[in-house]
Fold this sequence. Notes:
- This protein is α/β, with parallel strands linked by helices.
- It has one domain (2-66).
- It has helices spanning 11-22, 44-47, and strands at 2-6, 26-30, 63-66.
- A three-stranded parallel beta sheet has the order 2-1-3, with helices on one face.
Amino acid sequence: xxxxxxxxxxxxxxxxxxxxxxxxxxxxxxxxxxxxxxxxxxxxxxxxxxxxxxxxxxxxxxxxxxxxxxxx
Length: 72
């Protein structure tokens, strides 16, 4: 399973990613900041990309979790 965790750069997102990975999932964390976690590796090549494309409708992502805070 492939999972994109939007807003997952903090403690909860990193813990969620680690738990999903322990069950065999491939995770991608998409966030403007990254707190870091011992089992999460930052891919520096991805940090320089301007555009991020996720096409869940074509089957590239099995599940989509938004952990971002909304003040609205």
